[in-house]
């Protein structure tokens, strides 16, 4: 569809009351200034779901779900963004306007509609060919041999691309515009001599649908000896493999109360399971499971089960899927891994054992935490100290990638129980140490014992060649998040994220801040901070709900939801002082890190080997660091 103007979305959010929107679906109870309920997105007995009418914002302190009225509709009713806007506009008695887009992925429906229409015509051609083409019996025989009924084939719109070079191309004749559309939609291939021919030939065709049920691409299974066995459409303006999932539209349509989705490896597995009453299976499209896939799945269900072959290749694919799942494993979400016996797949298993047996396997599949730790430990002897050390160093970075929450706390505790290493020590293993840091600590007696006030070591006299002992190294550690970390993962220690949370909940705070102090953005959260401040500057009266709406459905939007849900401060004077302090701290972060990096290079050397100039430099750096960090 054409792009919905942002001004209309802002006006819509100003007109509706989030309390009314949510209360019509989840019964709310007044609790002080806010309203509360048991969270509709995860099971709980004690209410942790809070709705703030002043900010027009909801947040669950149990699972981390949060956002504005549009976000709630999308998650609760499983609507895509345009559908949620339409639904909310109806309640406000407004008609949704449309405008032409300047291009990109936010391009209008008018620009993509011809492609969609051409793909729909191709689908009908393939469906008709399966019923009437002279060679169709080969495809029908194959589908029957796989146990598929005519009804399930119709539901998934299975078709047949006949043998021959240009059957589909001939359907548009000499119409240059339609030929161009077929080419742009990935349905044609052009060789070096400029000749165009059908991409899919002599294959069973599986249409790939978007969230609205429109055909956006195809997968084709060969009937002859051609390679590859399965062929997918290339990426086009309407199709991105890393975001789409085969069967998701049918799964949402077939089961209103969807609570679980199973990720399988092929089209036929999805269709066979649906025929046997398991209508909640999906498959990736020739790519590994991505983080975008997982965010999309968890928007619809709290549990995802991965179903892979039990061989080495299947387990490696499962671990890649696990790595994509870790960053989105918020509290209330669950991932499991099922490995099938050799020679079996969901298709053969459901036909041989029935749906109940397979669903029992899904129920008892290996939880993410067990699969993660078992995979890492498989080649290690964790009964030895060396084995436990290696296990800890390999497992801790994976646990660190989890979002902040109860699940991450429990994962660290589980790792501590398995290794006998305390949680704080494990957290320090989240990233490899700097290359310049020595493997072993300095010899005993080499490092002085710093005083309780972090003062310089005793015996230091600037007139001397150097101090009697090196400075307090703890004072020289780089501050803030490591640059290698994804700064869009919520962190309780991030200065920029704390300031983001305050600004989203209190946009008016921006007027009290000297934004000239903002450092040059080096991380994604710092870029987001600048963009939020610019948005508030352009619209000083902007609301929390409207701000969240700008980034809804993005990783940045998820971070803003999470950060806004953490900030309880209400007093305006206290809020302004905190905001100024955070901005000042943020402005000092880069120069402090630069000084600490210089100090780290010196402290990496044994202290007794430092020259007099190096010792003087180390002490000068220490003084500069303490002065800049306000410790003098």
Give a short summary of the structure:
By secondary structure, the protein is an alpha+beta fold. 45% of the residues lie in helices and 11% in strands. It has four domains: 6-92, Alpha-Beta Complex (DNA Primase, Chain A); 109-297 and 343-353, Alpha-Beta Complex (DNA primase DNAg catalytic core, N-terminal domain), CATH 3.90.980.10; 383-427, no CATH class; 450-632, DNAb Helicase, Chain A, CATH 1.10.860.10.
The figure for the number of domains is 4
Percent range for β-strand residues: 5-15%
Please state the CA-atom Rg, rounded to the nearest Å.
29 Å
The residue ranges in which pLDDT falls below 50 over 5 or more consecutive positions are 101-110, 431-485
Give the class-level CATH name of the largest domain: Alpha Beta
Structural class: alpha+beta
The second-level CATH architecture of the largest domain is Alpha-Beta Complex
């Amino acid at each position: 569809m054409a792009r919905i103007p942002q001004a209309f979305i802002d006006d819509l959010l100003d007109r509706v009351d989030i309390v009314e929107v949510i209360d019509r679906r989840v019964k709310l109870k007044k609790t002080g200034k806010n309203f509360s309920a048991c969270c509709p997105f995860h099971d709980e007995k004690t209410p942790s779901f809070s709705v703030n009418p002043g900010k027009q914002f909801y947040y669950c302190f149990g699972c981390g779900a949060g956002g504005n009225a549009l976000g709630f509709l999308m998650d609760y009713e499983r609507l895509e963004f345009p559908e949620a806007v339409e639904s909310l506009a109806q309640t406000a008695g407004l008609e949704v306007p449309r405008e032409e887009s300047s291009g990109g992925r936010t391009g209008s429906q008018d620009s993509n509609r011809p492609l969609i229409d051409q793909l729909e015509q191709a689908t009908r051609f393939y469906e008709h060919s399966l019923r009437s083409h002279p060679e169709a019996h080969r495809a029908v025989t194959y589908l029957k041999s796989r146990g598929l009924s005519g009804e399930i084939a119709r539901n998934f719109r299975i078709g047949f691309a006949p043998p021959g070079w240009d059957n589909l191309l001939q359907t548009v004749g000499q119409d240059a515009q339609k030929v161009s559309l077929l080419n742009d939609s990935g349905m044609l291939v052009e060789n070096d001599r400029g000749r165009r021919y059908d991409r899919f030939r002599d294959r069973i065709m599986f249409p790939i649908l978007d969230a609205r049920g429109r055909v956006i691409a195809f997968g084709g299974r060969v009937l002859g000896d051609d390679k590859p066995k399965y062929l997918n459409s290339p990426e086009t303006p309407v199709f991105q493999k890393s975001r789409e999932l085969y069967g998701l539209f049918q799964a949402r349509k077939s089961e209103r109360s969807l609570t679980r989705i199973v990720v399988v490896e092929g089209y036929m597995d999805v269709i066979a399971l649906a025929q046997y009453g398991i209508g909640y299976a999906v498959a990736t499209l020739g790519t590994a499971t991505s983080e975008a896939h997982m965010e999309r799945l968890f928007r619809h269900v709290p549990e995802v089960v991965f179903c892979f072959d039990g061989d080495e290749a299947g387990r490696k694919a499962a671990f890649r899927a696990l790595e994509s799942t870790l960053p989105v494993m918020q509290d209330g979400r669950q991932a499991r891994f099922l490995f099938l016996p050799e020679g079996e797949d969901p298709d053969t298993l459901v036909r041989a054992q029935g749906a109940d047996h397979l669903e029992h396997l899904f129920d008892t599949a290996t939880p993410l935490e067990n699969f993660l730790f078992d995979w890492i430990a498989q080649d290690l002897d964790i009964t030895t100290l060396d084995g436990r050390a290696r296990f800890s160093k390999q497992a801790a970075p994976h646990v660190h990638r989890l979002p902040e929450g109860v699940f991450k706390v429990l994962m660290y505790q589980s790792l501590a129980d398995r290794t006998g290493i305390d949680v704080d020590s494990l957290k320090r293993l989240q990233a490899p140490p700097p290359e310049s840091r020595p493997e072993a600590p300095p010899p005993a007696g080499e490092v002085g014992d710093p005083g309780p006030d972090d003062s310089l070591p005793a015996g230091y006299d600037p007139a001397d060649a150097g101090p009697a002992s090196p400075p307090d190294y703890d004072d020289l550690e780089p501050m803030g998040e490591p640059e290698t970390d994804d700064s869009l993962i919520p962190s309780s220690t991030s200065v920029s994220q704390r300031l983001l949370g305050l600004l989203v909940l209190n946009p008016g705070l921006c007027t009290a801040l000297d934004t000239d102090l903002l450092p040059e953005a080096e991380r994604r959260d710092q870029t987001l901070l600048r963009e939020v401040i610019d948005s508030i500057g352009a619209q000083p009266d902007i609301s929390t709900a409207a701000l969240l709406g700008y980034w809804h459905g993005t990783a940045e939007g998820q971070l803003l939801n999470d950060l806004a849900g953490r900030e309880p401060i209400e007093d305006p004077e206290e809020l302004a002082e905190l905001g100024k302090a955070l901005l000042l701290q943020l402005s000092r972060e880069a120069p402090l890190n630069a000084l600490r990096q210089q100090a780290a290079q010196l402290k990496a050397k044994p202290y007794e080997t430092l020259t007099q100039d190096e010792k003087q430099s180390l002490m000068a750096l220490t003084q500069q660091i303490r002065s800049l960090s306000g410790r003098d």
